[in-house]
Amino acid sequence: QLQLVESGGGLVQPGGSLRLSCAASGFGLTNYAIGWFRQAPGKEREGVSCISNDGSTNYADSAKGRFTTSRDNAKNTVYLQMDSLKPEDTAVYYCAKLNRCGGLRFGSWGQGTQVTVSS
Questions:
Q1: Phi and psi for 9 in degrees, rounded to 5?
Q2: What is the pLDDT of residues 29-77, one digit of tens each?
Q3: Which of 4, 28, 30, 81 has the highest CB neighbour number within 10 Å of its CB?
Q4: For the stretch 38-49, what's the b/e string if a residue is b when 16 or more beta carbons lie within 10 angstroms of its beta carbon?
């Protein structure tokens, strides 16, 4: 089965850190861009970051300087390191396979992983 599975979310205090994982099964991540997205209650899903198949990255303004995305092709996994978390980062986080950063998404959304930033 071709799928991406997100994990690593949880409850963290403001200023804390979390590392999210996006593990692929049934296919290799090597030839794809992987985007991280999030959806907060009552809001539309928005892009957070993207890593191309060549390792180049880009970030939403809200994530710049705080979030870092990386990939480990040997583990078929992409990560989102989130530091200096703020309450407004609270959302369900999803990863998705893309033909390129900013391009088309393949497949359906997974279940995501909940991130809650609260004291």
A1: -70, 175
A2: 888 999 999 999 999 999 999 999 999 999 999 999 999 999 998 999 9
A3: 4
A4: beeeeeeeebbb
